[in-house]
Automatic annotation (TrEMBL):
Source organism: Desulfitobacterium hafniense DP7
Region annotated Disordered, chain positions: 143-180
InterPro entries to which the protein is assigned, alphabetical: AdhesinB (IPR006129), Bact_metal-bind_prot9 (IPR050492), Lipoprotein_PsaA-like (IPR006128), ZnuA-like (IPR006127)
Pfam families linked to this entry: ZnuA
Entry protein name: ABC transporter, substrate-binding protein
CDD domains: AdcA
UniProt keywords, alphabetically: Signal, Transport
Molecular-function annotations in GO: metal ion binding
Similarity annotation: Belongs to the bacterial solute-binding protein 9 family.
Length: 347
C-alpha cells in the first residue's frame, strides 16, 4: 500500500511538472509576443525617421556661403553638406574621392561659379549622376572684371611663368571677380537661384522654400540698409585688404579697396607692391590694415608696423573658423561683424 501510494505521488508530481512547464512556456511565448509588439512599436518612429531622411533632398555645396544659403532656404526639407571643411581656405581646395562619391548620390549641387571653384567643370563632366541638378548661384549676377596684375608685375612676366599652373588654381588672371556673395543684394539673388533649384527638385515643398526665401530676402534687404546707413556718413572710403575679395561690397557702398595682393589670398606680394601699399596707407592716413581669419596676418602686420596702423579682421566669409561655428555665427552675423570693423576703420 505504501509503495502504491508512493507511485501515485510520483505520478502526481510528474503531472504537476508538465503543467507548470506548459504554463511557463505559454507565459514565455506571450512575453516574447508582447516584446515583439513593443519592439515594432518603438521602432516605428525610427523607421519613419529613416523614411523622412530619405525624403529630404541631399544637397552638396561647394563652400560655406553656398552651404549657408542652401541651409536657410532648404530648412528641414534638405540634408546639406559643406564640402570644404571648417577652417580651410577654399580657393585652392579640390574635392576628394569621398566628395565625388557623395555627389554621385546627391539630388542638388550648389556652387558659386564665376571661376571660384576651378574644379567644378571637370567634376560635373565626370559624374554618372545625370539626375543631379547643378546650380550656379551667381548666374544672374552682373560680374565685376577680374584683377589681372599690378603694373609693376609686367617686369616679372618671365619669372612668373613657372607659377602659371599655381595661378590657374587661384584667381590671378581670372576673367571675373568671383566674390559675389559679399554684397547682400547679390546674396539675395543667389538665394533665389538656390530656391528655384529646390523647387525644381522637390515641387511638393514649393511653398515651404518660397516662404523661407521671402523671410531671408527681407533679412538681406535689412542688412543692405544697415550697410548704407552706417557707411554713407563716414568720412573715409579707402580700405586696405589682404586680397581683393571685397569689390562687390565696396561697389555697393561707395568704398575703394586696395588689395595687398589680387584675387588670390595666399600669394606673397613682392617688395614693389609692399612699397606701393605702404605709401598709399601713409598718404591717405589709413589707420587699419585688414586681414582674414583663414590666411596668415603676417603681411598685414608688416604694413601696419611700417605705417603706424592697426590690424583687424575683415572676413570674405569663404569659410568659418571652429570658433565662429561654435559661436553659432552665419553669413548674416559675420557680415554685421564686417560692418562694425569697417565703421571703426573709416571714422
Amino acid at each position: 500500500m505504501h509503495l502504491k501510494n508512493h507511485k501515485k505521488f510520483k505520478e502526481g508530481l510528474l503531472k504537476m511538472k508538465k503543467l507548470w512547464s506548459k504554463i511557463l512556456v505559454g507565459g514565455l511565448v506571450l512575453f516574447l509576443m508582447a516584446g515583439c509588439s513593443q519592439t515594432q512599436n518603438s521602432s516605428s518612429p525610427n523607421t519613419n525617421d529613416k523614411q523622412t531622411q530619405s525624403e529630404k533632398l541631399s544637397v552638396y555645396t561647394s563652400f560655406y556661403p553656398m552651404y549657408d544659403f542652401a541651409a536657410k532656404i532648404g530648412g528641414d526639407k534638405i540634408t546639406p553638406v559643406n564640402m570644404v571643411p571648417a577652417g580651410m581656405e577654399p580657393h585652392d581646395w579640390e574635392p576628394s574621392a569621398a566628395d565625388i562619391t557623395g555627389l554621385e548620390k546627391a539630388d542638388v549641387f550648389v556652387y558659386n561659379g564665376a571661376g571660384m571653384e576651378h574644379w567644378v567643370e571637370d567634376v560635373l563632366e565626370s559624374l554618372q549622376n545625370k539626375a543631379l541638378i547643378a546650380v550656379e548661384a551667381s548666374k544672374d549676377i552682373t560680374l565685376r572684371e577680374g584683377h589681372h596684375k599690378h603694373d609693376h608685375e609686367d617686369e616679372h612676366e618671365d619669372e612668373g611663368k613657372e607659377h602659371e599652373e599655381e595661378e590657374e588654381h587661384g584667381h590671378e588672371g581670372a576673367e571675373y571677380d568671383p566674390h559675389t556673395w559679399l554684397s547682400p543684394l547679390n546674396a539675395k539673388k543667389q538665394m533665389e537661384t538656390i530656391k528655384d533649384a529646390f523647387v525644381q527638385a522637390d515641387p511638393d515643398n514649393k511653398d515651404y522654400y518660397e516662404a523661407n526665401y521671402v523671410k531671408y530676402a527681407a533679412d538681406l534687404d535689412g542688412l543692405d540698409k544697415e550697410f548704407k546707413d552706417t557707411l554713407a556718413p563716414l568720412p573715409k572710403k579707402d580700405i586696405i585688404v589682404s586680397h581683393e575679395a571685397f569689390g562687390y561690397l565696396c561697389g555697393a557702398y561707395g568704398l575703394n579697396q586696395i588689395g595687398i595682393e589680387g584675387l588670390a589670398p595666399d600669394s606673397e606680394p613682392d617688395p614693389a607692391r609692399m612699397a606701393e601699399v605702404i605709401e598709399f596707407a601713409k598718404e591717405h592716413e589709413v589707420k587699419v590694415i585688414f586681414f582674414e581669419e583663414l590666411v596668415s596676418p603676417k603681411v598685414a602686420e608688416t604694413i601696419a608696423k611700417a605705417t603706424g596702423a592697426k590690424t583687424a579682421v575683415l572676413s570674405p566669409i569663404e569659410g568659418l573658423s571652429d570658433e565662429q561655428q561654435a559661436a553659432g555665427d552665419d553669413y548674416l552675423a559675420v557680415m554685421r561683424q564686417n560692418l562694425e570693423a569697417l565703421k571703426a576703420a573709416l571714422q
